[in-house]
Amino acid sequence: MTQQEQPPVFDHKTFLKTLTQKAGVYQMYDDTGQILYVGKAKNLKNRLSSYFQKTGLPIKTQVLVKRIVNVEITVAPSEAEALVLEHNLIKAQKPPFNVMLRDDKSFPYIFISDGQRHPRVGMHRGAKKKKGRYFGPYPNAGAAKESLSFLQKTFGVRQCEDSVYQNRARPCLLHQIGRCSAPCVDVVSDEQYQADTEHTALFLSGKSEQLHEQLSGAMESASQALEFEQAAKFRDKITALRRVQAQQMVDVGDSDLDAIACVIEAAVVCVHIIYVRQGRIIGSKSYLPKDRLEHREAEVLSAFIAHTYLGAAKMDIPPTLIVSHDLEDEQALAQAITLQTGKACKVTSSVRTYRAKWLAMALEAARQNLKNHLNTKQSIFQRFEKLQSSLALDEMPQRMECFDISHSSGEKTVASCVVFNREGAVKSDYRRFNIDGIQGGDDYAAMAQALNRRYSRLQKEQLNMPDVLLLDGGKGQLSAARQVMEELGITDIFLAGVAKGTTRKPGFETLVLEDGTERVLESDNPALHLIQQIRDEAHRFAITGHKQRRDNARKRSTLEDIPGIGPKRRREILKYFGGLQEVKLANVDDLAKVPTISKKMAQEVYSVLHSE
Q1: Smallest Cα–Cα separation from 346: which of 281, 418, 260?
Q2: Is the CATH number 1.10.150.20 carried by domain 558-609?
Q3: Which one, of 471, 280, 287, lies nearest residue 369 by Cα?
Q4: Mean pLDDT, rounded, of the chain
Q5: Antiparallel, parallel or unpaired: β 494-499 and 468-472
Q6: Cα-based distances in Å from 371 to 10, 186, 360, 558
Q7: Cβ proximity of 16 and 544 under 8 Å
Q8: How far does Cα 134 stand from its chain's mean position?
Q9: CA–CA distance from 202 to each of 172, 504, 597 (Å)?
Q10: Calpha distance 597→284 (Å, rounded)
Q11: pLDDT for res 104
């Protein structure tokens, strides 16, 4: 029998050591690579450190932390922008632990209606069903209302509901205090109101320079026409625009692009992509390319873009790819993507304004995630070093394998084999073995069968053998392994059993060595942590396989084992009696009453169901 399933190990101490204290967003993943949670922080290091406190964590947070095996971060210029990015990622990825932020009402937009003589400006939440233009999302309602207040003072576009607008007979109080131009009673001309509406849209789109140019031109025209009062109004608007500092991140036009950044450190590469659609960041992802020949960031980016985007006809390829380094083949890449996918594409490293900001975010995220990866890799390497010294090995192991057995009272036994090297888990080399032909519950026989199947095949195909072989168990499992290795003629693998300690708690494991000696490592020994990590991963992999095999067997109907009873006849029998329990209670004459079931077949069904 195996221990209760243990979660994979996440080395949070090493991760937190070099984490930035800037504002940003963090994404937490489980051992299958699935997103668990997205959060934002004013200080990433402080916020993430709070998840790994020894005490005081809520139950839900404890459940989350136990499932974390990887954390990726994206640094943002400000907390407000991190908040909006968090919102966008939650909407796009729908993490299971982000329950409270899934509602569309979480973040407001500013809406300008279309199809009306005098369009309305207002705050909008929820689905975008109304016809018009939407600007946002804003970090919170306060930020949106602050912008609406500024627009009201500056441009005077109406913000009242249509029902109020349609039933006004005289200007309201807002017009009297200079907050509305009163289009409801035609105080302002249609041309002027339309111009105010377009100026409002330009402001919300972030096109400040274009708006300033239009207002300056209008002021000059009014001055030349000796309309000094009108010119003064335009002057006041320009002054107000120059003073206002936007505190929130809003959609920037209709930009569709991918911002791709590359960083190389210690011969390891990290490529980070930020996906921007409709001027809004909808997601990001880090890649760690392996088996590459390129040595410079530009070369890696060229190869990465060619591999990722060429031939991806069904992929959502934006019209622009902005990259962190100058590429010698930018034009060639763009032309190739266009030819292969039929979608016009531009590749460039020359960007300004908001595009430069997105690219800087991607570059910072690549640096941070590469640093985290290197730290984790270095931590595993140090554990391998400590394992060598703790077990007095001649050389540091390059490859380790661990076996575990899982069953339920001897039912549907499954053996697992997990593989680790100096960089961590090698999941592509994991294997499961369905164990048959043994007495149920005989863990020693199950271990021997799995080891024989595994290493006889490795010998036959001349594949890599491990330097260290760990077995979840004690002297019995070790004895079974030694016998298999002797039969196969394998003598250069270090064998060790990982037995449960007297308290059966993690940190008190006993290592059973081939010479019969036992060794208990200190609970804070990195070598023990590595052994625990590999043992727990083998246990998890075995448990998962056993549950799948057991559940598949239990879903199988007894009727499926009867010759001559196919899917159609099974359906007829179950439909006639209403369920398998009623079928078992039926006699031969009752079974023969089922359409398509003969007397002889009914006798066969009865015999099989009552064979015990």
Answers
A1: 260
A2: yes
A3: 287
A4: 81
A5: parallel
A6: 15, 63, 17, 56
A7: no
A8: 28
A9: 26, 67, 77
A10: 60
A11: 40
Token readout for 233 is: 């109004």
Query: pLDDT tens digits for 489-537?
Result: 998 899 999 988 665 555 578 899 988 888 888 877 888 888 988 998 9
* Residues 194 and 116: beta-carbon distance below 8 Å: no
* DSSP state for residue 225 in the 8-state scheme: T
Q: Is the peptide bond before 137 cis (omega within 30 degrees of 0)?
A: yes
CATH no. of 257-371: 3.30.420
Q: Are 460 and 452 in contact (CB under 8 A)?
A: no
472/543 Cα distance (integer angstroms): 13
Residue 208 CA: distances (Å) to CA of 30, 88, 521, 541: 43, 25, 66, 57
* Rounded Cα–Cα distance for residues 563 and 515 (Å): 54
Token look-up 């075995």 returns 542
Per cent of the chain over pLDDT 70 is 85
Which residues, in sequence order, are CB contacts of 362 under 8 Å at separation 6+?
A: 259, 260, 261, 272, 273, 274, 284, 324
Instruction: State the residue for tokens 């400590």.
Output: 386
Give the pair of three-digit tokens for residue 59: 């139950």
- The predicted model scores a pTM of 0.41
Q: Identify the CATH homologous superfamily for domain 399-554.
A: UvrC, RNAse H endonuclease domain (3.30.420.340)
Contacts of 101 (CB under 8 A, 6+ apart): 86, 87, 90
Residue 150's Cβ-side half-sphere holds a number of Cα atoms within 13 Å equal to 22
| CB neighbourhood size of 175 (10 A) | 20
- N residues, the chain: 612
Cβ(314)–Cβ(281) under 8 Å?
A: no
Mean pLDDT on 344-371: 88
Q: How many Å apart are CA 108 and CA 147, to the nearest integer?
A: 12
Nearest one of 609, 610, 605, 607 to 572, comparing CA atoms: 605
Q: Which of 434, 473, 431 is nearest to 454 (CA)?
A: 431
Distance CA 195, CA 198 (A): 5
How is residue 472 written in tokens?
């979840």
Please state the domain extents for the chain: 12-102, 131-243, 257-371, 399-554, 558-609
How distant, in Å, are the alpha carbons of 100, 133, 207, 223, 237 from that of 233? 45, 26, 20, 11, 6
pLDDT at residue 103 in the model: 40
What is each CA distance from 126 to 107, 113, 276, 279, in whole angstroms?
8, 15, 21, 19
Closest of 360, 347, 374 to residue 288, by C-alpha: 374
Asked if residues 470 and 531 have their Cβ atoms less than 8 Å apart, the reply is yes
Domain 257-371 identical in fold to domain 399-554 = yes
Topology classification of domain 12-102:
GIY-YIG endonuclease (3.40.1440)
Least confident of 144-148, 398-402, 416-420, 423-427: 144-148
